Amino acid sequence: MSTLLAAPPGTIPAPTIEYTQLAPMMLVFGAAIVGVLVEAFAPRHLRSAVHVPLTLLSLAGAFALTILLAVDGTRNVAAMGAVAVDGPSLFIHGTILVLAFVSVLLFNERLQFVSQAASVPGSTEEEDSLEEGAVQTEVYPLALFAIGGMLLFSAANDLLAMFVGLEVMSLPLYLLCGLARRRRLLSQEAAVKYFLLGAFSSAFFLYGMALIYGFAGSVDLAKINDALGSASGRDTLLYVGAALLGVGLLFKIGAAPFQAWKPDVYQGAPTPITALMASGTLVAAFGAVLRVFWVALGNLDWDWRPVMWGVAILTMVVGAILAITQTDIKRMLAYSSIAHAGFLLTGVIATGGPAQNEEALSGILFYLVAYGFTTVGAFAVVTMVRDAGGEAGHLSRWAGLGKRSPLLAGVFAFFLLAFAGIPLTSGFFGKYAVFAAAVSGGATPLVIVGVVSSAIAAFFYVRVIVLMFFSDPAPDGPTVDVSSMGTAAVVAVAAAATVVLGVLPQPVLDLADAAAHSLFVR
Amino acid sequence: MTTHYLVLSALLFSIGAIGVLIRRNAIVVFMCVELMLNAANLALVAFARMHGNLDGQIIAFFVMVVAAAEVVVGLAIIVTIFRTRRSASVDDVNLLKY
Amino acid sequence: MTSLLAAAPAAEIAQASGGVLGLSWLMIALPLAGAAILLVGGRRTNSFGHLLGTAMSLASFVVAVLAFFELLGRTAEQRRVGVELFDFIPAGQLDVKMGLLIDPLSISFALLITGVGSLIHIYSIGYMSHDPDRRRFFSYLNLFVAAMLLLVLADNYVGLYIGWEGVGLASYLLIGFWQFKPSAAVAAKKAFIVNRVGDFGLAIGIFTLFATFGTVAYGPIFEHADKASTGILTAVGLLLLLGACGKSAQLPLQSWLLDAMEGPTPVSALIHAATMVTAGVYLITRSNPIFDGAPTAQLAVAIVGAATLLAGAIIGCAKDDIKKALAGSTMSQIGYMMLAAGLGPAGYAIAIAHLITHGFFKAGMFLGAGSVMHAMNDDVNMRKYGGLRKVMPITFITFGLGYLAIIGFPGFAGYFTKDLIIEAAFGQEGVRGYLLGGAALLGAAITAFYMSRLMFMTFFGEKRWDKDAHPHESPPVMTWPLILLAIGSVGGGAFLVLGDRFIHFLEPVVGKPENHHGFNPVAPVGLITLVLVAAGVALAWVMYGRRPVPVEAPRGSFLTVFARRDLYGDAINESLLMRPGQWLTRFAVFFDNRGVDGLVNGLAAGVGGTSGRLRRLQTGFARSYALSMFFGAAIVAGALLLVGNL
After folding, report:
1. HEC secondary structure over C45-99
2. Could you tell me which of A466, A487, A473 has the C-alpha nearest to residue A404?
3. Is residue C563 within 8 Å of C318, Cβ to Cβ?
4. For range A282-309, the mean pLDDT
5. Nearest 10 degrees: CA dihedral of C627, C632, C635, C637?
6. How many CB pairs below 8 Å do chains A and C form together?
7. Where are the transmembrane segments (chain B) (predicted)?
8. What average pLDDT does this structure show over C387-411?
9. With bands split at pLDDT 50, 70 and 90, how would you rate the model's confidence at A73?
């Protein structure tokens, strides 16, 4: 009891906050709060005009601040050890901000988001709101909160901050998933499922955190790692805690057997939100996975690696095999995302000495950039192929798209080839970097499974290409909507990134190397 | 002493988890998730006492705040889908499958 | 044998420094450019295409002549000149530097190819004057000349192989030149496919050489040939022989040559008599250090040659189609050359000498046959000729001179070169010498018979013409080449053989023949040959000169039928190769469909089926997802505990 209150009341030292180092996050959260105020006070017709520049500018500003921080070179732990400012986190922040920027460019509240979320689908209320031209502009501040959460989640240096980041990231996404303008039943269903399962996984994460706290007496990642060295006889707490913590994180990256939500949610959510989740959330979740397993549980790697092997193999195989029989384009991309999460996990497993860790980390960082751009581009193309009922999701509707719109179909085919990891696309170097690291980390069997899965996966990517180019278009087939400048720009940027990273990957590889050089601060 | 709290906490967590698995009403399912969070809170506070530092107690407060936010979001979603489908059963929402 | 040989070919290959030799690549480039211009230019070049093609061939001939004289100006030891062109295939260990080798052997061929080739180009101007596709014809001829020159001038086996395939392509295109005739199209395909068998052997032979010596260039291979094991050299020799058999229509790959006569007659003269079909002889002579190290392969060459010279001669006896009779004769004569080449250093130079004289007289006779066909409305049946000597005097005289040359009438070209081969064959030790020599001797008699038969049926006797035939002498553009080739048929042999001129010229390449005493006109073998030749001519006169020739062919004895059917070569091919091949194909298709495809499709179906079943797990119920998460969490925790407590 006497040790319970180490410091007498009234002498709690005031916490120090390094505002400059947290500036990117602060800017995003600040803009989100301003967005809420805009919702509250700005007249309805002005909101959209305020939100779009506000959101984009804050993201661009945060990106610029991240660059400044990276150039500045200070690497430490900010906010009383809650947030790490180091090479990987800055790289991941930059990636998330850019991917979020292009995802937000896809937002088009009149096309994709519901006019009034509270109205019942098919009711007169909904018709009225549609006639009125109402729009749900809350999507912008909600997205900003989610993005801010991603930044915190991926840079958190203690488990509490990570939990808060996880929730701040997830809660707005639960809502955003239910805001699709068309097929509202599916969208709402996606929201319910995502929310319930997400909350369930958060509970696992939280309980795992409690057990780890019980083991180590602290939730600080570095202190947990230190405690691993001093055997304290509470191993069960540690192992179960680590497992539950892992479940929460693996759920977010969509690793099997925690992948079940991904296809349903990706299919039901509005496509720009799917793009944001498939790129930003995945990047942030991998940042968190790396931090927990490399920093907090780094000395435990002999124990978690075999389990992670199983998870990675299962994830790759399930993602690749289940994608084959999918008939919905977004669902297929969701399974593709699962398979890619598996490929990335092979990099997470490839730990070893510092040089080995650096190689693996650099490979993962490059892969995240490459995959993020390609996936945002692919979902952007999905938003453009529309028919009377909204987006033409069913694969059969895509038949003959190559004849109707050769350019768009060609770009989409290129994205698919990048997913498959064909040389001269970014996907090739991404896979190469991660698999090479895994091989030198001694995970050759895993890489073999990865390559076989890639081959299976290539089948369904090519199947879509064949469908687009070698089938005759249906007479009432979907049209390609090129009215949105933002969407066209996203497709162009993503295609350019996929090409450049596939042909001239060296600058980004160098950047990833530099970011991985000092590894994580502890 | 601590062990008792931990056992209670584990029981609560298990009841919550099993509740999520077996209950159909979305509200009840959600309440079971809250039960799991509170089981974690109990464990945190018990460990804080065991370790003799305040971290666990502080975390418990954070968790409560987060849980409150989660309630807001969760109830919003569940109410919306209830209005749409006139049902709060999680088994009724299964259009998205295979 | 080897000691005699070692001295000569080991001489260093000098590098060309400027001069005509340095420009000898022009020989290949000029006709190649001609072919390219005519093919790319298309119809626009119709008006001058034939002139351009002929000019390119002539220009190439001029370069060859200049190179030849520059070579003559050097001492014998310095007559092997390399011309480096470019690095062709720099791929790891395989580094093929493309270059030319100008030596007595290759320049002899170059002169023959460009000289005879130019004459045939000129002849074709007249022969093809009514053909709407004359330009295309000349482009193919130019392509052929370029490829053939690459074949003989390259200084490595890869270059030779490219030329080898190039002449095969040109031959295919020219046999099938009149595509509207189904027989021509079929003949072209047959030639191509049969040649593939031979090319396969050549390719494997070259791979083996590369595997053994680590290079494909002649210089190092021949320098180190004696260091390789006899087994390897024998294998390579037999593989090269297979290639030679395909290209030179030797047994057992002879069947395509007779059908190849479907092509225009100048093609038959150039490709299927004078040049391309002799490529096999060139290959064996060029590879002499390999064959000298592999006596078994050498013997195989001689046997193939002896067998083919008899088979060709027998076929020639029974054919009523003038071109096919000449084609049988070509087979037979190339058999002589192969036989000579198979005799080792004693025979290489003689083989090439016979090759050159044969190039003249056979090309002349083919062109003469073309001239006759031209006069007889393209009828090739000799039973409908007769008495043509009066209406076509120039053709008759030039053809007659070629005839005298091929049967070995004393003083004419064939007399010198063929006698040398027969003598050299008898010069072999023991039974081998008698068998090979006997075959050659018998062949000479049969040659005299069938060639006399051809002469009598065509130019003598009564007229058996079709009613609408109005034979006339051909225009000068066609007769002049005949005259020039006839001059070669008359004097070529004496020029090359007397004083061992040609044998000495080739010495730096193929070595000095042992036991060679120069040409002896009154050697016993030579006298016997003359007697047999006279007997052959007399028999032919009795059968075809004295008696009238029936217009309808009599049924004839089984031997005649045997010969008419090309010694059942096609039937043998069909039953031995084609039928089993078809069975093999059917089996392969079956195996591919059921076995390989079955495996692949089964795998795909398995994955797809797994996918179809697994996706049922995605029930859409959030609670079942939660259940899978719950179990997943339990398994992860359990596994971690298990691993951690190990």
Report:
1. HCCCHHHHHHHHHHHHHHHHHHHHHHHHCCCHHHCCEEEEEEEEEEECCEEEEEE
2. A473
3. yes
4. 92
5. -110
6. 95
7. 6-22, 27-47, 59-82
8. 84
9. confident
Q: Determine the average pLDDT of the residues in C439-457.
A: 86
Q: Which residues contact A398 (CB under 8 A, 6 or more apart)?
A: A329, A385, A392, A464, A467, A468, A478
Residue % of chain C over a pLDDT of 90: 1
> Which of A166, A211, A213, A224 is the best mutation test for B, with the most CBs of B within 10 A?
A213
CB-based contact B96 C626, cutoff 8 Å: no
Chain B: residues touching C (Cβ < 8 Å) = 17, 20-22, 24, 29, 90-91, 93-98
- Give C453-505 as a DSSP string: HHHHHHHSSS----TT----PPPHHHHHHHHHHHHHHHHHHHHHHGGGHHHHH
Alpha helices in A350-484, H assignment, sequence order: 354-384, 401-404, 406-420, 426-440, 444-470
What's the one-letter identity of residue C14? A
Percent of chain A with pLDDT over 70: 97
A95 pLDDT tier (thresholds 50, 70, 90): very high
For C601-614, what is each residue's pLDDT tens digit? 777 777 778 888 88
pLDDT at C76 over 80: no
Residue ranges of alpha helices (H) inside A257-328 are: 261-268, 271-276, 282-290, 301-324
Extents of the domains making up chain A:
15-517
d(CA C163, CA C147): 5
Q: Quick one: average pLDDT of C112-131?
A: 85
This complex has an ipTM of 0.97
> Is C117 in contact with C152 (CB distance < 8 Å)?
no
Left if phi > 0, otherwise alpha if psi is -120 to 50, otherwise beta: which for A338? alpha
Nearest-angstrom CA–CA distance, C545 and C542 = 6
Tokens found for residue B68:
């409150």
Mean pLDDT to the nearest integer, C241-252: 85
Tell me which H or E stretch contains C357: helix C348-375
Instruction: Give the nearest chain A residue to B81 (CA atoms).
Output: A188
- pLDDT for position A499: 92
The residues, ordered by sequence, that sit 6+ positions from A287 with a Cβ below 8 Å of its Cβ are A88, A89, A92, A153, A154, A155
Three-class SS state of A83: strand
Nearest CA-CA partner of A426 in A380, A376, A371: A371
With 0-12 / 13-18 / 19 or more C-beta atoms within 10 angstroms meaning exposed / middle / buried, residue A476 is: exposed
- The confidence score (pLDDT) of residue C350 equals 85
For residue A245, is pLDDT > 90?
Answer: yes
Which one of A190, A207, A217 has the shortest CB-CB distance to B43?
Answer: A207
Q: Give the pLDDT score at C609.
A: 80
Of A3-17, A133-147, C51-65, the least confident: A3-17
Residues C53-62 have pLDDT tens digits of 888 888 889 9
CA dihedral C5, C7, C9, C10 (to 10 degrees): 130
Q: What is the CA radius of gyration of chain A?
A: 23
The mean per-residue pLDDT over the stretch A434-441 comes to 91
- Work out the angle at residue A440's Cα, subtended by the Cα atoms of residues A438 and A441, and round it to the nearest 5 degrees: 60
CB contact at 8 A, C354 and C274: no
Cis peptide leading into residue C182 (ω within 30°): no
Query: Is residue A434 less than 8 Å (CB to CB) from chain B?
Result: no
DSSP code for A78:
E
Q: Report pLDDT digits (tens) over C380-389.
A: 787 778 777 7
CB atoms within 10 A of CB A49: 11
> Quick one: which H or E segment has residue C183?
helix C182-213
Tell me the one-letter amino acid at C550.
P
Q: What domains sit in chain B, N to C, each tagged with a CATH number?
A: 2-90 (1.10.287.3510)
